[in-house]
Amino acid sequence: MSRKSLISIRDFSKEEILHVLETAREFEQNKVQNFLEGKVIASLFFEPSTRTRLSFETAINRLGAKVIGFSDASNTSQSKGETLKDTIKMVSNYVDMIVMRHPLEGSSRYASEVASVPVVNAGDGANQHPSQTLLDLYSILQTQGTLEGLTINMVGDLKYGRTTHSLLQAMSHFNPKFIFTAPEELKMPKEYKDFLDSRGIEYIETTSLNEHLNDCDILYMTRVQQERFTDLMEYERVKDVYTLNASMLGEVRRNMKILHPLPRVTEIAQDVDDTPYAYYFKQAENGLYVRMAIISYLLGYR
Amino acid sequence: MTRKELVVSALENGTVLDHIPAENVYKALDILNLKGIESQITIGINLTSKFFGKKGIIKIADKFFEDEELNKLALIAPKATVNVIRDFKVVEKKKLVMPEEIHGIAKCRNPKCVTNHQPISTWFKTIEEGNEISLLCHYCEKITDSKHIF
Predict the structure, then answer these.
(1) Which CATH number fits domain B101-148: 2.30.42.10, 3.30.360.10, 2.30.30.20, 1.10.10.10?
(2) Which of A80-94, A113-127, B124-138 has the lowest average pLDDT?
(3) CB contact under 8 A, A83 and B142
(4) For an interface test with A, which of B107, B113, B114 has the most A Cβ atoms less than 10 Å from its Cβ?
(5) For position A239, what pLDDT does the model report?
(6) d(CA A246, CA B78)
(7) What residues have CB less than 8 Å from B64, skipping those under 6 apart?
(8) How do beta strands B14-21 and A218-221 pair?
(9) Per-residue pLDDT for B44 more than 50?
(10) What would the CATH number be for the domain defined by B3-95?
(11) What is the pTM (predicted TM-score) of this model?
(12) Residues B4-17: what's their mean pLDDT?
């Protein structure tokens, strides 16, 4: 019995989120499973993303299933002008599930409507990336022991940061408090603040990284990209303001952990890696278990 | 009959769509697929209205519409009125109700939305905030506001 697709984190109820996280914990303890033996899953990456693709393909392999697919649309019939619908319908005939990354927003939602198998969105343009959100939640749960009542400080590019928007929506089930640390140009957009207001969730905004560094349980760092700035002088001014160094961590909460969706460039200094607060590499590893859980759940095995 | 009524002739049977913002009359014709039909259509644009400034009127003889079809006009003419005419008499007056979803009419403003690159019919949920209407794209989840709907 297969279930629906996972296109956006909002497709999962709070109970489903917790169930998938619980399943991920099972897989972290038992990495080799075989119950998907005989199944074939498609990995359709219409634009490259080595990290996510390898994570999904490893997850599929570790569950005992086989993978078919492509990692770049330029070698496929897409370049001959075949519609997305035709490609998806064709692949649906061969496989039990489709994992898909595509540069156009809404492409995965559309694919889930024309496919005859469940679809997992591995990223549609700047829109959704739900498996990232789930692995972020898993990492938070793992380090804090709970998802309830935490203070999350999101730093960097909150305007375009897809992962921050998605994490915000997912955490809203769990009575959080938010701190938004960003330069003026990259502040959290109004629609998300309205979303929080409508749910009575508190948040503070600041442009200073130091101001609330010691007030949070989770420090979620994102990269501030030059391309996002219309005023380059403004970029030059802020690019180092949101860089984290080990020396800044003297008075943070003992349970605090630093997350980052990766790749990190300069925003987290190398010397942070050796502190007990750095969790971003383990966070990336957790992606494997979470993706195994998503796939198992959607195919009805968990 | 008053002077105003004589400007556009009366219908024996049919539907009168009144108080359409003058600039949206052509769009209204498109939305209701009136361009190719055989019924007699009378169109008035830039008629003066006490309350609405310049308005447009569309009178379609011998044609009647389902509410569902008419309500699509709410996007571009939220204050329009519908008069159903039989034997020269107004037998029903209707106001438009904004539908919860709009299929196939408006365009998504997001250039990276899949609906702007693939042969897919658009699908929006309508959001009403006071007098402002905006459309939430079912696919890319971005909002197109009322100024950019067409």
Answers:
(1) 2.30.30.20
(2) B124-138
(3) no
(4) B114
(5) 80
(6) 58
(7) B14, B15, B84
(8) unpaired
(9) yes
(10) 3.30.70.140
(11) 0.88
(12) 73
